Input
Amino acid sequence: MSQILKFIAFRVGSALLTLIGVSMFIFVAIHMLPGSFEDVLAPRGPEELRQQIADKFGLNQPLPVQYVKWLSAVATGDLGISLITQDPIADSFATRVPVTIELAVLATITSALIGIPLGLWSGLAHRRTAVSGIARVAGSFIMSVPDFVIASVFLYVFSRYSLGLTVGQWVPWHEDAIGHIKSVILPAATLSAVGIGLFITTTRNAVIGVLSKDYIMAAQARGEEPRDIVRGHVLRNISNPLVTTLSIYLAYLIGGAIIVEYVYSVPGMGRFLVQGLLNRDYPIVQATVLVIACAVVLINMAADVAYGLIDPRLRKG
Amino acid sequence: MILQPVIHHWRDFNRADRLAGTASVTMMVLILVALLAPLLPLDPPDQVAAHPRLSEPSADLVFGSDNLGRNMLSRVLQGARITILLSAIAVLLASVAGVAIGLIAAYSGKALDEIISRFSDIVFSFPAVLMGLLITAIVGPGEFAAICAIILVTLPPIVRVVRAAAMEVTGTDYVTIAWLSGASPARLLLVNVLPNISVPVVTQVAYSISIGMLVESALSFLGLGPQPPAASLGSLLREGSVYITVAPWLVFGPAIFLVIAIWSTNLIGEGLRVFFDPVRARCLEE
Output
């Protein structure tokens, strides 16, 4: 037991280090941006006004001091205020984070439920060349279609022919539950398409890899039922690649939903970030990038811990 | 003929994996057509009013014409040239840097290794498009931003692959023997290590090119890639999506080209992995 705890503690500590590095990276990157707060807020303002703004945001202090101040504010949940609307960014996050998470959860469930069984089936049937070939072509094809191409195809089909789904408009669920479902299907389907390809391909490759192992041959030689072999050996041994795939996909969903949110006008984190960038609203960019990158670090940490829980051999070191 | 050995190797490659063999030929054709487009008997991509506006695809206008009457086929080929060239240049730079950094991490002692690994973890925590947005914010939209973004996105995986492969090779008997028999570090590196890590690296580079095309076109789709009048496949998709209900061919032309390019590159990567991995290749044959 203590080995597991030690393993988890190590992973958590390592993730914390990465988080600090990520926050420094973002801080430095934002400070390299051309044009300062004064230029955004008072492009042609008098010198005193620019001075006031610099004082207000603490821009005259040395960078390390600014960094520590920013980090300690972030730690207490204060993500700063928007330069343009002057609203606290944390308040905007309260409405935007749930939207992105809702899409991510829907897309993950859909693509795992469709992709894993298909991958498993085509992997188990890989000696029948027809099934195997089709699965390989289909999986790699879906994986190669960029999300904005899928989105464009959906936009074309669903705005050309009225098929009952809302296109390019987001309806919050508390306003109209059915309207919400109609508006959520297309973005979620676009995100799932990528995931289905990913899950088919990785599951299939993992299954084929496991099937070539000696313990499968041994199990067959012992006369175990194919069903038991799949349950006892194949499924257990493909769980690690599946965890990897899941973590890659979740990271894509949280950061990569930027484009899908942009195309479908979904008021989530990605759209918030793009708008912040276009308006040069740097506090928004800083906060959004920080939250997304932290989420990715935490996802990777969870995956690392999961590897150790699934496979005791990986707990060492 | 110079091509003889190339064809010979391609035959082996094609035999190991027909899909990847076909993909490699397709990719070759795409690259040649995109590079040689200025020599083909086509309208110049920026010639306005060469055709009626928004004409549907037909026999002499395969991809139709856009809202300014430009020939879409010429524009798609020009866009493909930008997309393919940008990601190829970026991935070339990333692989040279990645091999160097990965080898340094593998052989230079614990402290530097830890720093390099930590740093690639940090960079890897930014999803591709997010990294692209951050870079464009700093250096401004354009080709340079796209190249920087692709390098930063593809570098960490290359470093990891090189580092892991180099460490594995170092533990093998043939390296120990070469070292014992007095080979210099340079010889060890060039003769024993580099050739033996080339397989995973080449495979990773192939995947990186497809990621590069994806990142480049995603940035251009958001309007942050090469600026007009230059247009990559992503910018063409962006322009076309305005007219999606009236002139879907403006989207489908560049989309088809982009998807085929990315798909072929992915299949080539997969094919290379199978081709160079004899154990795996054998179990697939059985």
User: Anything to note?
Assistant: Chain A touches chain B through 49 residues (CB under 8 Å). The mean pLDDT of chain A is 83.
